[in-house]
Amino acid sequence: MAEPELYLFTGPELGEKNEAIAKLKTDARAKYGDIDEYSWYAGDTSVNDVVSQLLNESLFSSAVFIVLRNAELIKTASDIELIASWAKGSAGKPNTLVLVSDSNSIEKKLEACVPSSHKKIFWEMFENRKTQWVQDYFRKNGFAVSAEAIDAILEMIENNTESLKAECSRFFYCFEKGHVVSIEDVDKILSHNREEDAFTLFAAMADPSQSVQERLETSVGILQKIRLSRSNASRPAGIISGLTYCFRQLRTWHALHANHAVPADKDLRAAGFTSKKKITQYENASRVWNAGQTASIISLLTSTDMALRESGTSLEDVQLFRMLYAIVVKGGLYCATYEKQIC
Questions:
Q1: What's the pTM?
Q2: Is 67 strand, coil or helix?
Q3: Phi, psi dihedral angles at 214 (to 5 degrees)
């Protein structure tokens, strides 16, 4: 029996996830010829518009291929019913919808619309895979890399192959093939040219070695750099999505350690805490925000996302900086009226 071309890719491993999406596109082109490709964010595009595009036949291509990111934001019954209705009537038809989320799961009713064979969670690499991956990536591109340099790279870069590829590729433009990348090279190429994103912002916000004022000043500086970069990472939807993922992970960390429990290594890995760096980061974050504050922050992020969609672009920076202040200084509580001047 034919199944709808509806897919669900979740989890934090961006590189393998994007490779899976690219393979679906290649398969669609081989099967249907020319396809119209779209990539949208659930926070910026209505589900009604997405489904309308899937239902409309293209005049110039034989199929439509849509990637809808931030799928964890699709929560209303009407939106889920729109996708479910399209999926029921699309079996055997060429148009494709790929739901993508950095979270490990989305709304259960939406997830139930996706054929089981079309779902996959892309987990972060285990600690024992990362060193070999970096070493192999440099070797495939004609370079060698020292053990100390690998350790430094892994300390600086998010634990997903998309980030690792992007950052490691910088060395290939700076040195001739055959060069052995040293820890001095890492400091020169990565430390001084590192791009900021929602994950580096979270790390700064969660640094328990700094005072609240210091964390706020550092975090504001990083947020300003992100916004000025004008990259995909600078979009409010991307910033909030990344922070939401981090605080949901922190919520999971608190749940695993509730009542002073000491979770087993396998439980930590299953929950996404697969590296020493990540475990240390969330252990530090748990000292900054308790379980109740974490829940408040997740609620604040959701309400800020909704407010940004309603207000348009004119107040984006104001709302983002107020959100940052509320998280760092007030533990997720909304700014009171008398605080608006400093928020």
A1: 0.61
A2: strand
A3: -65, -40
